[in-house]
Design goal:
- The chain is an alpha/beta fold.
- It is 22% helix and 20% strand.
- It has nine helices and 15 strands.
- The strands form three sheets. A seven-stranded mixed β-sheet has the order 1-2-3-4-5-6-7, with helices on one face. Strands 8-9-10-11-14-15 form a six-stranded mixed β-sheet. It has a two-stranded antiparallel ribbon with strand order 12-13.
- Helix 7 packs antiparallel against helix 8.
- The longest helix has 15 residues.
- The two termini are 26 Å apart.
- The N terminus and C terminus are likely disordered.
């Protein structure tokens, strides 16, 4: 069952990770507790109409090869390691036609120019002129085809101003759709506000991604799941869904397996950035697709995740000098004894 919690308000999104700025935390160390790429396993999610192959890249990134099973036409999402992409396409007997770039950061778009040299004629989609080798600039609700698959572009500015998520469906199919969320939505987390505001992230998570079908599979840009869930556990210590997902993620991590994809429905059960403080709704409240009804924003009242009122008034998250990360790094660096006492109310 999907728990229908009251919405997390935009002020809360700004504050939830901002504690690290308040407490003088430095940049997150990329991959400090993650497997090296060579030890991380790929994963293929096969359906009758669409195949998605997860390709680990760099230290904790994911590239995604999306293959239309009817035509064998394929798209690659964020091909930061082009040679690995080419080798995988050949192994799968697919025909690569399309590059879907979520945003311009080098660890997502840095392989575009090399890839188009290796495979001339590729169509490169994205929502930002800063994306290398861009041939087709898209906007919110732009559509395109990869074989018989429909791809809808969802504008989710905040991490970067031109960030796009890609929602992929097969017309007439009863199988779950997929959404490729880059650095907007992670498993149990969300991306840093480099070029946007809490209002924009609120809209991206709850009003755009949160309204996708609950069974939509979420393919995010980084392997941040364990740290994100540790953060979520501090936010909601009694949430069984968080505890169970964390135990599962640790088991996957120990064998080098990916913890993605999740689903939109799952994110509403354990992602603190998609949950709110109305715990009573967990006992039969609304689910995704309906959670916006009947819960208006309360002016002047902090709309925080459970127990996070203490964060009200801290510096905006996007002012923090750290790299993109799931906000999991915050609580472990706060003063000893903070969590569970003065923090959680």
């Amino acid at each position: 069952m999907v728990l229908g919690y009251r919405l997390l308000g935009p002020r809360s999104l700004a504050a939830l990770g901002a504690a690290c700025a308040r407490h003088g935390l430095g940049p997150a160390l990329l991959g400090s507790c993650l497997h090296h790429t060579d030890l991380r396993k790929s994963l293929t999610v096969e359906q009758d109409t669409m195949k998605v192959e997860l390709l680990p890249a760099l230290t904790d990134n994911y590239m995604y090869l999306v293959i239309d099973e009817d035509t064998k036409e394929a798209a690659i999402v964020d091909p930061v390691q082009p040679q690995k992409v080419i080798e995988t396409v050949k192994k799968r007997g697919a025909q690569l036609s399309t590059v879907l770039t979520t945003h311009h950061h080098w660890d997502h778009a840095g392989g575009n120019e090399k890839l188009v040299k290796l495979e001339p004629g590729l169509k490169v989609y994205g929502g930002d002129d800063r994306i290398g080798a861009l041939t087709h600039k898209v906007t919110h609700l732009s559509t395109l085809q990869v074989g018989s698959l429909n791809v809808k572009c969802l504008s989710t500015p905040c991490h970067t101003s031109g960030h796009i998520c890609y929602f992929v469906t097969k017309p007439g199919s009863a199988e779950p759709p997929a959404v490729f969320t880059g650095d907007t939505l992670f498993v149990a987390g969300c991306g840093k506000f480099y070029e946007g505001t809490a209002d924009e992230m609120y809209k991206a998570l709850l009003e755009i991604l949160g309204r996708l079908p609950p069974d939509t599979r979420v393919y995010c840009g980084h392997e941040y799941t364990i740290n994100n869930l540790k953060f979520a556990r501090q936010v909601e210590p009694s949430n069984a869904a968080i505890r169970e997902k964390l135990a599962w993620a640790k088991e996957k991590y120990s064998s080098g397996e990916p913890t993605v994809p999740s689903t939109i429905a799952e994110e509403f059960t354990y992602n603190p950035f998609m949950r709110g403080e109305d715990r009573a709704a967990a006992r039969g409240g609304d689910g995704p697709g309906h959670h916006h009804e009947g819960h208006p924003q309360r002016e002047g009242q902090f709309q925080g995740a459970p127990g996070l009122r203490w964060l009200q008034g801290l510096e905006p998250l996007w002012q923090m000098p750290s790299s993109a990360f799931g906000y999991s790094d915050v609580l472990g660096k706060l003063p000893a004894g903070t969590v569970g006492k003065s923090v959680l109310v």
